[in-house]
Design a protein that fits this description.
The protein contains twelve helices and 15 strands. By secondary structure, it is of the alpha/beta class. The protein is globular, with a radius of gyration of 20 Å. It binds zinc ion (2 copies). The site of one zinc ion has 5 residues, from loops.
């Protein structure tokens, strides 16, 4: 049986290493040996208390690992066996309710939108419901995605941000070949939305950032194929966009900023008539200063909120990664063991002197 080592969040910036028994699998569940867990904005917001966490909790919702044990029913249902490498969808789905049957399993009647891996109190047995651990319990309602052999487990954790990039940058706004695109926010999701829009055949893509901290990321955006990068602290994004495109504005605007209340106003200003804006950047309840709401009417804009991704898109992300068509290796990456996770989250939250990597990954035992 043995013990699993996990980093447990007990409150604001209070992450502790703890040990839990590794559960014995039943016929319909499994245990994953975690090889890598990607970190995103949600992780540092949970860590710093900006998002309420159901403490104590083992966070981590971008998990990749190898099936260590699995029951017969689960093996048949998921099509995987011991030794197979999989990425874990953080939402659980019963597969039988009306929402699950129509594909919107993120609103499953049984699990709802909040019963996510990485967001479950450790009181619930067998406690190992998050990626900040050596082992992850996979409940009968788990969704797992096979990882192509061409990818290391660390590379494969990009299934999550790239899935978001494809869903938010292409599928939700229905980005077409020839479209003009603007992506607000040069974090990993913004960079992944850039790659996805490029892959979908967008004609022109701009990426915006804010301040000198974002300059290395804007350089990365250029290396990944952005036609224009704009620091909105220095330049007016609409003027820059127009002068680079000969006067055109964007057909698709993707807002993946973090804590940037002004971004929605910029998104509307950057939109051409009939454009679609995908809103996936939360503003910490600070409203939308600078928003010309009338312009939404005059330009006949479509605004769509985007919260999650889904398994079919994660599959596309994994195969796009496996094609190695885009230089994801350029992303600055930091791999840490569970004990060093607090430090990395502190830097990702902008609370330390150390510049955060674009892609932070926990590799237990590294
Ligand atoms: Zn995430
Ligand atoms: Zn369901």
């Amino acid at each position: 049986m043995g013990e699993a080592r996990a980093a447990v969040l007990h409150g604001t910036e209070d992450l502790r290493i703890e040990y839990f028994p590794i559960p014995k699998t039943k016929e319909d569940d499994a245990v994953l040996r975690v090889e890598a867990c990607g970190l995103c904005g949600t992780d540092h917001e949970l860590f710093t208390g900006q998002i309420a966490a159901p403490c104590p909790v083992i966070p981590g919702h971008e998990t990749v690992g190898t099936i260590e044990s699995i029951g017969e029913v689960a093996a048949l249902k998921w099509g995987v066996g011991v030794g197979d490498r999989v990425a874990v969808e953080c939402w659980q789905a019963c597969g039988r309710c009306a929402q699950c049957l129509k594909g919107t399993y993120r609103r499953c009647d049984q699990h709802g939108q909040t019963d996510l891996y990485g967001m479950i109190n450790t009181e619930r047995q067998p406690a190992l419901y998050g990626g900040y651990a050596t082992h992850h319990y996979l409940s009968p309602d788990s969704l797992v995605l096979p990882v192509p052999d061409q990818l290391t487990s660390v590379e494969a954790t990009l299934f999550n941000p790239l899935g978001a990039g494809i869903k938010w940058g292409v599928e939700i706004p229905d980005t077409q070949p020839g479209d003009y695109v603007a992506i607000l926010g040069p974090g990993i999701r913004g960079l992944c939305a850039l790659v996805a829009a490029r892959d979908a055949g967008a004609e022109f893509i701009a990426v915006t950032g804010y301040g000198s901290n974002d300059h290395p990321r804007l350089e990365l955006a250029k290396a990944l194929g952005a036609d224009l990068v704009v620091d909105v602290a220095e330049s007016d994004p609409v003027k820059s966009y127009r002068s680079a495109t000969g006067g055109r504005l964007a057909d698709v605007v993707v807002d993946v900023t973090a804590n940037a209340p002004g971004a929605l106003g910029q998104a509307v200003a950057l939109s051409s008539v009939d454009a679609t804006i995908v809103m996936a950047g939360v503003r910490g309840q600070k409203g939308a200063p600078g928003l010309n709401a009338d312009a939404i009417i005059w330009k006949e804009l479509t605004l769509k909120g985007a919260l999650g991704v889904d398994a079919p898109v994660y599959r596309k992300a994994l195969s796009l990664l496996a094609e190695k068509k885009f230089p994801f290796d350029l992303l600055t990456r930091q791999e840490v063991d569970l004990e060093e996770t607090s430090e990395l989250l502190t830097s990702m939250a902008g609370k330390s002197d150390v510049a955060p990597p674009v892609h932070g990954v926990i590799v237990p035992g590294s």
